[in-house]
Design a protein that fits this description.
14 helices, twelve-stranded mixed β-sheet, about 425 residues, about 35% helix
Length: about 425
């Protein structure tokens, strides 16, 4: 089986090393040896250490490499939307099998890739696009195909999980924890895709598409990052027996007319310490799946890094190579359910709202009446000093935890609270998940 490798960065180099180190075992598992036909890179002559590959295999002509008749499988680890989309569509239409780790492309235009695969008759595998080495996507689209999945909740970004875990353990603020993550190599020089939730949102779209047999794109995912999470938020979570995680949540539901829908969102949330995801620390990933017959399942492991991601890539290479030798292809995209995606305003959850208010009689009653006007029921209230002097002209802190309410109702409540002269500021609004 002849392989074209697009990209030779951190992941690509690990793919090459594993192909070299495990060549005999891989050949035995597949029934034929794997050979690298070529490696497309942006620049020739770059120092790639002691990579066990002939320099003559490197080329800057990715499209020319893909079009070669002797290429059976195309492996893409370049990332980004273009030119990767054009390359992969060309490969799939030509009947070649494709293995990719490109979550951004799959979330942005997975439809085009699946249609090209159906047209050309090749396989499209992308286990490495979500949660690195964790075997997750194949269980969703194969092992659990006989079951009905109701909800998928996960920690799918190692950078944000490291930052929030550090804040929880040390009391550090976001900026300090991000600085530590950068120094240790967990955060990129530009961490925007991670800390603003773009990376997790792309993965949420892929998970929801597989779990609910529905085409879900990045634009369908409600996204919030972790940049507004403070040390005070983490302290409040700890006081409630919770921690804060950036969660991707995909769930079945019904709309007002009783039609089945899906909700897909990414945002920071408080979860109780007793929840299995609460103990997932450092840069690890974990995904919690709830299904009718299988019940609750959790997948856990390293969600990023060169070697873990390369492990998932090679698992897919073995699968597609076996299929090609047998003259078969994997099942095509399953989007038969075609469920509509509910807007975030209809999503139901609980909320933790922290207010800095004037410390005088009647304030709590006034605040409670705002919640009542928007049909948001209050579960608990905690009052404390906000640092100002006690009395009529001082400030106080109100921490309110609600019962389950629609997101739109909570947004309207917070909007009205911001306009009250007794409310100095709305210092924090966080969702509460997992039954805390």
């Amino acid at each position: 089986m002849r392989l074209a490798l697009l990209g030779c960065g951190t992941v690509g180099q690990e793919v090459v090393r594993l192909l070299h180190e495990q060549s005999a075992d891989l050949a035995a598992r597949i029934g034929a040896p794997l050979e690298i036909a070529g490696i497309a890179v942006r620049r020739l002559g770059r120092d790639r250490g002691d990579l066990p590959v002939d320099e003559d295999l490197f080329t800057t002509d990715a499209l020319g490499l893909i079009k070669r008749d002797d290429v059976d499988v195309v492996i893409e680890v370049v990332g980004g939307i273009e030119p990767a989309r054009g390359w992969l569509v060309e490969a799939l239409r030509a009947g070649k099998s494709v293995v990719t780790a490109n979550k951004a492309l799959l979330a942005e235009d997975g439809v085009a890739l699946h249609e090209a695969a159906a047209e050309g008759g090749g396989d499209l595998y992308y286990e490495a696009s979500v949660a690195g080495a964790i075997p997750l996507l194949r269980p969703l689209r194969e092992s659990l195909h006989g079951d009905r999945i109701n909800r998928v909740t996960g920690i799918v970004n190692g950078t944000t999980n490291f930052i929030l875990s550090a804040m929880d353990a040390t009391g550090a603020g976001f900026a300090e924890a991000l600085e530590e993550a950068t120094a240790l190599g967990y955060a990129e020089a530009d961490p925007t895709a991670d800390v603003e939730g773009f990376d997790a949102a792309a993965k949420a779209a892929i998970l929801a598409s597989l779990a609910f047999h529905t085409r879900v794109g990045a634009a369908d995912v409600h996204r919030e990052g972790i940049t507004e999470v403070t040390a005070a938020d983490m302290a409040s979570a700890q006081a409630m027996g919770c921690t804060i995680k950036l969660l991707c949540i995909a769930a079945r539901g019904v709309d007002a007319s009783g039609r089945e829908t899906v909700s897909v969102r990414v945002h920071p949330a408080m979860i109780p310490r007793s929840h299995p995801l609460a103990s997932v620390g450092d840069a690890f990933n974990a995904v919690f799946v709830e299904a009718d017959a299988a019940g609750q399942l959790m997948f856990y492991g390293r969600g990023a890094g060169g070697a873990p991601t390369a492990s998932a890539v090679l698992g897919d290479v073995v699968a597609v190579s076996r299929n090609r030798l047998a003259g078969v292809r994997a099942a095509s995209e399953s989007a038969y359910a075609d469920l509509s995606v509910r807007p975030m305003g209809e999503a139901l959850t609980r909320y933790h709202v922290s207010l800095d208010v004037a410390d005088r009689p009647g304030v709590l009653a006034s605040v409670a009446s705002v919640f009542a006007r928007h049909d948001v029921s209050i579960a608990t209230v905690r009052q404390g000093s906000a640092g100002g002097p006690p009395g009529r002209d001082g400030d106080a802190e109100l921490v309110i935890v609600t019962h389950v309410a629609p997101d739109a109702a909570l947004a309207a409540t917070v909007g009205e609270l911001r306009g009250l002269n007794i409310v100095r500021s709305v210092t924090s609004v966080l969702r509460v998940e997992g039954g805390a």
